[in-house]
Design goal:
mainly alpha; f41 fragment of flagellin, N-terminal domain; 2 domains; two-stranded antiparallel ribbon; 6 helices; 5% strand
């Protein structure tokens, strides 16, 4: 009578379940240590959605920075135009003074010298006012070189805001002023009033654009927080549930190891009995 000893199927099964339990235990430990469901195998669709939300959060963060940078640029331009307007107010006062009939030719010449200095100072303001190396007041700023500045104020294409700063050079706004004659002084008043009106219009445009950007920053900041919270719900680990999974996987892994050890001992004892 002959017999044969076949492969220990029980031991193989025990080994299989032990390995599966160890993998489950390792995966659970990885999620607990990283605090995120970062593996696509865990939740492929959820990971894709979370990554899209993460891109939106990052994009909104950059949009906030862009808007704040544009606000800083607007404030720079507005401050310069305020100084420009102060000069124009002084020029207007001097023009009115020169228009007074008691002024002699020498008096008018002295007033003209001060006016010329103020106009030169105003032009220096235009020439020196820049932000990040970009001229702001000469009408050449912006990506198109026409004084129009576009801000990427959102996370997606087309989410932009724009404003324009017209050419504010003295030659464009005021022209030449000559108060040494009565006719020249009268014409100067019209030019100065027109220039001051243009400065006011530009500053009003800048103020409205600044308020728009401030409102945009406030709005997208709230949106960013909400999207980040939504991403967190998908990506972050539920510690209570994952801790329970870890405990279960740990017990199953120990049981599997014990079962495998017992199967190996049984096979060894059978072989010893046959020797």
């Amino acid at each position: 009578m002959s017999f044969s000893i076949n492969t220990n199927i029980s031991a193989m099964r025990a080994n299989l379940h032990s390995n599966a339990g160890s993998n489950t235990l390792n995966n659970s430990l990885n999620r607990l240590s990283s605090a995120t469901n970062s593996s696509a195998a865990y939740d492929a669709s959820g990971l894709g959605i979370a990554n899209e939300l993460s891109a939106q959060v990052s994009g909104l963060g950059q949009a906030i920075m862009n808007s704040n940078d544009s606000i800083g640029m607007i404030q720079t331009a507005d401050g310069a135009l305020n100084g420009y307007n102060d000069n124009m107010e002084r020029v207007r006062v001097l023009t009115l003074q020169a228009s007074n009939g008691i002024m002699s030719s020498d008096d008018k010449a002295i007033i003209q010298q001060e006016i010329d200095g103020l106009l030169e100072s105003s032009q220096q303001i235009v020439d020196s006012t820049s932000f990040n190396g970009i001229k702001l007041l000469d009408g050449t700023g912006g990506s198109s070189g026409d004084g129009t500045f576009i801000t990427q104020a959102g996370a997606n294409a087309g989410d932009t805001s724009s404003f324009s700063i017209a050419d504010s050079s003295v030659s464009s706004l005021v022209g030449s002023i000559d108060v040494t004659t009565d006719s020249g002084a009268a014409a100067a008043l019209n030019s100065i009033d027109s220039a001051m009106s243009s400065i006011d219009d530009t500053r009003a445009t800048l103020g409205a654009s600044q308020n728009q950007l401030l409102a945009n920053v406030s709005n997208i900041s709230i949106t960013q927080v909400n999207i980040a919270a939504a991403e967190s719900q998908i990506r972050d680990v539920d510690f209570a549930q994952e801790s329970a999974n870890f405990s279960k996987a740990n017990i199953m892994s120990q049981v599997g190891s014990f079962a495998q050890a017992q199967s190996n001992n049984i096979s060894s004892n059978v072989v010893n009995l046959l020797q």
